[in-house]
Batch of 2 targets.
Target 1
Amino acid sequence: MKEIFRRRARYLPLPERANDANRRVPDNMWISCSRCHELIYAKEYEDNFKVCSKCKYHFRLSPRERLAILLDDDSFVEHDERLCSADPLHFAAGDVRYVDKLEEDRRTAGTREAVTCGVGAVEGQRVSIVVHNSTFRGGSMGVAVGEKVARAIDRAADEDIPLIIVSASGGARQQEGVFALMQMAKTVAALDRLRERKLPYLSILTDPTVGGVPASYALLGDINMAEPGAFIGFAGPRVIEQATKQKLPADVNTAEFMLQHGMIDLVVPRSEMRATVSTLLRLYTARTYAGGQGAGYAALREMAVVDARNGRHAS
Ligand SMILES: [Zn+2]
């Protein structure tokens, strides 16, 4: 699976927001971490799922890399691949037309829209999955994104399988105005249908997840988890300070602050994400306990062992 990080063309320096192709580096090269500025050996960086070994900074991933980390090899089947924005407002800012920006992003971001949706398996457990692409219009939610997310939720309900959404988004897409905002209601209504079917939804928030996405589906998971250091929130600290006239803590928008204040349930390092997701899926989907010896019981025991190893205690 780690080979996924070594397959494409290779360039330096590593641009944090660049498309897939520009993320490759030669194996014998060094990468400068964009947070601590230490040099990291490229092979070590890629073997480490693009996490800085010095400061644990989690670099942003493309949908393809994210799916490779989470899902079983060759299990992913994409749905609604061709569904993309139709520019409902015929938006232009000066001479710059929104349709042209969309076309540009399609060429550079590696996907036709800001989310990739489909069905795959996590350690043999089928799931409906959505992954944001933060390099496509900042991962923002327009009409097509909302429709794709809602369809992915309905697919989970129809196929009686769990839902996973990996968010990385700048919020509602301003070029689609109120139509983008309407996607918040549409996706939340779809999640309600999933809840009626008693199917689990695991939400994974990655850097950054802000605006209308955490204000709708990203914080409505049965479990909401985030990667370490991820920037999360409805608005940035400057906007909140201007509105409330109060000084905020420097780390107010971090995953760790959100965990401390009960906004999310878990902060999970990238290297542990797949195992954690798999365990949670087994916990939520175990329909029989067979006198305490069923799959749910085994998963619960496994989590307790992981918690004890990490010095955490269940509350
Ligand atoms: Zn670093």
Target 2
Amino acid sequence: MDDDFLRIDATLTDNERLIRDSTRRWVDEHVLPIIAACAREARFPLELVPAMAAMGFFGGSLNGASSVEYGLMMQELERGDSAVRSFASVQSALVMYPIHAFGSGDQRQRWLPPLRSGEAVGCFGLTEPDFGSNPGAMRTRARRTGNGEIEISGEKAWITNGSIAHLAVIWAKEGETNTVSGYLVETDRPGVRAETIHGKHALRASVTANLVLDAVRIPASNALPGAVGLKHALQCLDQARYGIGWGAIGAASACYTAAREYALTRKQFHGRPIASHQLVQAKLVEMASGLAHAQLLALHVARLKDRGEATAAHISLFKRDNVAMALATARAARDILGANGIASDYPVFRHMANLEAVSTYEGTHDIHTLILGHAITGIEAFG
Ligand SMILES: Cc1cc2nc3c(=O)[nH]c(=O)nc-3n(C[C@H](O)[C@H](O)[C@H](O)COP(=O)(O)OP(=O)(O)OC[C@H]3O[C@@H](n4cnc5c(N)ncnc54)[C@H](O)[C@@H]3O)c2cc1C
């Protein structure tokens, strides 16, 4: 394969290859034909959700997939578009995972089956208008009312799937200790308002919304019993960041493949393909090299994860470096395509714009640098 310089494919198991190939075929048949139009129309292809569920994209390891198998699914989905991978990531890592890991038996029974089948769509509300990189300073509050209910008030910003979700996992501060805890909020409860964010230049095929919670009442049984403390929200982010590390390979691979093909066919100066010029070759080499490193990193982190040895810092390195590689690859590919690099007939600009957002969400590149700096030196440099 063009995007597998080190022949890493040969190290995959038959089942891993099967999952990778069937996901890739599904993306080729169902995502690629419509995704440019979806991005133009700023529309998430909701019609694909039942088929995504049938393909097993929602739930990941909760469905018995190994970390490599789940990662390969995310890789192939993002080869289509980051919006499609983001939908699956949020559903799996940010909604199903916390319900599975921190929820009660009743909560798991009530929500995991419809989330797995795509009948219910979930979202994850951590970020607020004034608190993105520093979610621990959030203002959203949860208050026990005394009659078996909890009242939540606050605002959440930039929430993927926010205005199409049936269920929101909302993080809020409770009690005198201001402990950040997780709550399940059905979005049809009085006081929940979702406002879709329009005019995005990235992730245009993903729905992003601001959520207003105005004295929303939920039964006390909607609190996630095991999600008491910000570290549990961060644990969910680790799951999602893991999927992003793999997804970035898919987006980068789509850009590299488009740039390589273009460079071999586009002719400039004496009828020679632009791939014959050293400067263009250097760009292609950087792309192939970055991809090879990213693929090896992904496989290694997957093995650590399956052995229960992947730390938050390992996942930070994975998300940070693979997304940086993908963004650099997309920018270089856009350059190689010349004027066509900005045309929607090619996937490159769409991926490049998406990756700008992917580099920011789930911890910006620099925040992951600080997490790694802390892990290496033992000294926090956030403040
Ligand atoms: C398309 C999209 C979808 C999203 N989906 C979700 C979602 O589903 N749920 C959710 O909860 N959130 C979501 N987010 C929010 C996302 O996680 C935040 O945007 C991200 O955490 C960064 O926060 P911010 O935008 O407030 O930037 P800020 O925190 O204001 O940061 C701005 C800049 O300052 C830098 N910076 C901040 N603090 C420091 C520091 N201490 N040292 C050095 N530099 C610093 C950052 O690196 C960045 O460059 C989404 C965002 C986008 C764009």
